[in-house]
Amino acid sequence: MPLTVGTAGHIDHGKTALVEALTGKNTDRLPEEHERGISIDLGYAPLELPDGTSLSVVDVPGHERFVRTMVAGASGIDLFLLVIDAGEGARPQTHEHLAILRLLGIEHGVVALTKADVADEETLELARVEAEELVPGAPVVATSARTDAGLDDLRTELAAVASRVARHESDGPARLHVDRSFTLRGIGTVATGTLWSGTIGDGDELRVEPRGRSVRVRSVQVHDRAVERAEAGQRVAVSLPGVERQELRRGDVLVTPGSFGPSFRLDVVLEPLGEIPPRVMLHHGTAETGARVARAGERFAQLRLSRPVVAARGDRVVLRAGTTVAGGVVLDPAPPRHADEARFEALERGETLVYAPVQVDGEWRWSQDWLDELRAGLERAIDAADPLDPGVPVPAAEWAKAVLPQLGLELRGAKLYRPGSAAELGERAEAAEALAGELGLEPVRVADAKLARFLEEQGRLVRVGNGFAISPEAYEQARAVLVDGITLAQFRDALGVGRKTAQLYLERFDADGVTRRVGDARVLRRR
User: 442-457 pLDDT, tens per residue?
Assistant: First the structure.
């Protein structure tokens, strides 16, 4: 099974140069990174070890301003490569990165002493002793990216450490935390990330959480190589047709439908590094969000989030407030809205407490408090919905079929509505009247697509082309001049419009089944 190794260490200690020496790939891809000579964003490269082990390398920035990017890269890795300049020794970000690794539960790794070729023996030995004290039990290897000294030893140690790391579980549902999205010509939107669990293959249906959008995978790559299925632990790139790049961002998660839902609160057992303020930034996976800390005794807290994350029991989080102040292990990703120490202790013992839905003997069970909270949340969402479509998406969760009948809402297609509710113009009424006055034979651009769709359903306009509309009377006028075998030029002249306008009308007639194109002419379909 594949594994992921993440770099860590202070700025200018040679992380990126070492990765390039090991893999042959420079992970700095941004022009600004090359101009400034420092890593700003996450970089990735494949690493094949002498024993056949395949590692995905995540290279993180070392500057203190980019610690949150470092946390996003470190989440989901299996072992670390801590980089320390042999001449400088451990520096502030060395210590903070190491603390973050410990809070994330990343116990195994190797320390590389870089730039060993320009350090004298005494300095190198002092750096080695310091590294052994910092990370007891971790192999320490002196290296030089310039001369390649020590690289073979480093690969050997990485292989030995990797052999002791527990492998990922590929039997469960897929969960991929997105750290980057971009568009490629001819392919479309691509999302990349480390696959935490499960597998992903061509044709899979997934959900983008917490956005609640369904997507389909068209192709999968691992380090620029197409694969039939990607496995947990690998660096994965998936192409998602029909998705705009701005519809995905770092912090989103691709999951098997119904397997993970958004978490608005997290119950955690704390691992403090110092005093924890009441408000912090929470880092989970590649997501970052503000959180309010409600303590329950010394060891536990409920984290109430500004934006939801996609978490599971046992996940680790990092809390920062200027610096890293604590970590935590998730005991419950969907807890009730109170911090009860006795409940935390029961969760820590492994007891199953029914608040959010859980299957017991094949049946779904949940608490009334949870149901009331879900109903209230859906009601708020319906209040905020567009009056033209006053519904909200059905929760994409395994329990939905069992719970929906208890909500007192009406299911129409894939959305929930208040019983008897209907689409209304609301504040758009004035805009609708103004638009009606503009419509005629010449198409008018309508920026509000929902309004155009609604008015068309009411028979008040006809949409043509992409974002244009005409009056129903104009549509019938144009239809009346159609004759069998009419060309674009003949139709244009008969209607008295320009070529572009005539084309829009004919394309709409084709779509409506009134005409079909044969060569350069349109023939009437016989009904």
Answer: 999 998 888 999 999 8
